[in-house]
Amino acid sequence: MESWNVFTRTSRIAYFSMEIGLAQDIPTYSGGLGVLAGDTIKSAADLNVPLVAITLASRKGYFAQSLDEEGVQHEAPVEGDISARMKPLPVRITVPIEGRAVSVAAWLYRNQSPAGGEVPVLFLDTALEENTEEDQTITDRLYGGEQRYRLKQEVVLGIGGVRILQALGFRIFQYHMNEGHAALLTIELLNQTRNVHAGSWMNTLDVDRKAVGKRCVFTTHTPVSAGHDRFEYTLVQEVLGDEVVPMEQLRQLGGDAELNMTTLALQLSRFVNGVAKKHGEVSREMFPGYEIHAITNGIHPLTWASAYMVSLFNRHISGWALQPELLVRVDNISDEEVWEAHQGAKAYLAQYIKEVTGQQLFLDVFTIGFARRVAAYKRNDLIFHDLERLLALGRGRLQLVFAGKAHPHDNDGKSLIQNIYTAAERLHGEITVIYLPNYSIDVAKHLIPGVDVWLNTPTRPLEASGTSGMKAALNGVPNFSVLDGWWIEGHIENITGWSIGEETSPDTSPEESNAADAEDMYKKLEDKILPLYYEDRAGWVRVMKNAIGKNAYYFNTHVMMRRYVTEAYLQR
Ligand SMILES: *Cc1c(COP(=O)(O)O)cnc(C)c1O
Prior knowledge:
Strand content: 15-25%
Number of helices: 20
Bound molecules: pyridoxal-5'-phosphate
Structural class: alpha/beta
Helix content: 40-55%
Largest sheet: 9 strands, mixed
Radius of gyration: 24 Å
Distance between the termini: 38 Å
Number of strands: 19
């Protein structure tokens, strides 16, 4: 059994997230939300911010992706052994699920910073003998199963998380909900506040709400209302019952028609934020009447700089990893060294590609990278909109590397992967197209630093923030992206990278905007980006350095964490 008492002496911020991506061999994440949570924890440890993180054990992970020759996605569970990286804690609590008292245990992972700080991460687990066979699987599959399964997971995370922290003796002064999945923690806090007041629900709800709200911070990540977690009250009644909060009061807090986790979190949080300036605006329109701030996401610098960049920065910008603002001094490094570090990362990627797909990536050919979840709004295949046009500008002087999973239920997403395969076949011998399977932290670490430009083509304004572009910038890889999410704040045309397309009026059809954005992408590649890359090395390296000195110095989780501390956690 592990000793955790070292962590309970200081009062802490409890950071709740359905997924946390800390490392390749802890597969409890699916994508951006989880990797952001992992990077947040790492920066908190670096900066000695007293945080404790809570998530689910997700023993079977999200899923492992394999792709057949036609680009059809196949899914398999990820079987990991969580005991390899974590220690069990001697604690059990129960949560009410379908009238049963379901037992929940926790594993402890200690995230240690090279600077000495440490953040404990608790992984909640229901795979315990005393639970029914079905209940043992509640913490198996991340985002797997139907509504009922998801609600059970959220009961374990939100209500179980609060209870287990208390059972372990943690003193929590702020609860931070990273997205709405953990919003049920608010009703557990409400329940406990009411017990203290010993009042009836009717009389004290307003007072209790305020008391709970003072302790809660909520970060929303989803710019479309369909993306927010919602549950029918009949289901909520069946799964959760009245034990924690009577249905009538829950309706007052979580929405009348159905339980909306975002509404619940909004109503019970003193501080609410979106994850980029634009996303803050979009969220304020979506939820009128709430004060919604914006704290732009970031990435953890030491995690995402390639070994080549780490060595370069260590030589020239001492202290950069703990104080990434120092990257503003990148101009002290010679062009040759920046270029060589990048070519090192490109050769490392080429080696990796050879091993995984058997294809050859040429080090002297301009390479575009694109990796993110495959979903219709991300338009992962937009660059293939007009293959003739792409061939005319890129024949023999363009390579493309893709990666990304589609959610198992997202058939549109899955067919986008096939579109990319079809295009690859048609371009064969003229433009190399590579698709790296099973996008993960490891794939991202190889891919992002090794390409020459990082492409992003979301439908505006659906990219809340996006963080892979920040990883690219840190590695001297400029962004070429639709102005959405963080890029609105990071973009300076021709200086830090390039934009794609223009904001269109709401009555433009999707087909028209796709065509317009694709055309702008081709034009910029042809007129600006390819000539700069092939004909003006000094000009190209200038943009690479600006990506580091004007983007990466700011868009990181150290800056982000300091903002959460001063603007959210410590505000009264
Ligand atoms: C950084 C990262 C993401 C998020 O990138 P976006 O640009 O937000 O799509 C997703 N998955 C992995 C594995 C990552 O490393």
